[in-house]
Amino acid sequence: MQKTEPSNTNPTLKEQKDHGTFSFPCGLYETYDDENWNGVKHHWHDELEILYFMEGEFELVINMNIYTITDECFYFVNSGELHSILAKTSVKESAVVFHPRILNFDSYDIAQSRILQPMMKGELYFPRCIKPEHPVFSRLKQEYLEIVNAFYQNGFAPINEYQMVTNDLASQLFIRAGLLKILAFLEQYQLLSVKEHTDDDYRVEIIKNSLAYIHQHYGEKFYVHTLAQNAGLNEQYFCRFFKKYIGKTPVAYINEYRIGRAITLLQDTQRPVMDICLDCGFHNLGNFLKEFRKKTGMTPLQYRKSFSQTHKSK
Hints:
11 strands; five-stranded antiparallel beta sheet; single chain; 2 domains; alpha+beta; four-stranded antiparallel beta sheet
């Protein structure tokens, strides 16, 4: 099963898809030996995420920090953290994304008061990374693989989604037990920490708000100085700041996002290319065609035909 970024058109930066099901918000995402998987673009969600990198080279960005990954390891993404993944080679990777409420107890015991409630409130954080040399790694790996196995026992992939979920009661209990054991091991080794506020929190909010504005207004005509003004920065500094943390200029990101929306419309509708061009914020057809070819290597009509033929053959 290949993990991809969500294809819905809801324009907010906060991820709008459901992880797992409504009653059991926990999903499994996997990528195996896929040379065409580029990764996941910047987004954030309320759920917690456990990432297991098995093989390949990755660039993982969490908030303002960049991590180059070449060896087997676990990384953790806490609630609300802005993150992205770039795959640089053929890779093997998996992730379990879950809402901490699935671990809650009705009785208010010490585990509830010291770990689960603070985690629900975003006051207690997972460690950033666990590598094989750490004594807890083998235990985490064993429990993580048991969770994956529980998904495979009676799980299924919803239509048009790239996650595995389960409605089976026994599987859900095994998954809950595995996640609680992971928390227990992290607590045993004193790896859970209280969130500390830093200057990066402010920078992360600037990036979140800027990306959210782009996602909300991509169909309109707006300028980089609008983003800079919203951030309270001068335009030149904002452009350097944006490129440093996103890896591309604001204009390049805006064009790429608009082309992504255009690709979705070409896949899902038969609307004329000119209408799609205008709805995606391009007010010049020539510029749209140039940016589209730069991204896909073909014209919009060629892309639609190619996608349709590939889709029909499956």
